Task: structure prediction
Amino acid sequence: MPARTTPARSASSSPSQQPFSEAYVSQCNGRPSGDQVIAAVRRARPNLPAGAGLTVKTGPLCAGVWQYTVLTVTGSEPLQVMSKGAPAALTVVTVGTDPCTVEVRATAPPALLSTANC
Result:
């Protein structure tokens, strides 16, 4: 009977590199951090006033490679952010008062859509 071997784990299979489950929404635990989401929003929306105070109200919450974050904005309505990707290279999919764009509805995990009330 041949001996069983266990495949070696590659560096990319470490738990910190794996996406979150798509079956439910969970706290991102710093993967990404709120500051990383704010930085991504500032890159995606350079028209935000430099002094606009952005702070994290809710999240980031993760499902799969997607994140949902609600930001408070000084003197304005809260912004809801849908982003995806690795913490160091977040892509903002949508940011505004209604995160439920066609792309989000078509591609985001159902658990995240439910959390965002889409």
Summary: The radius of gyration is 17 Å. The mean pLDDT is 84.
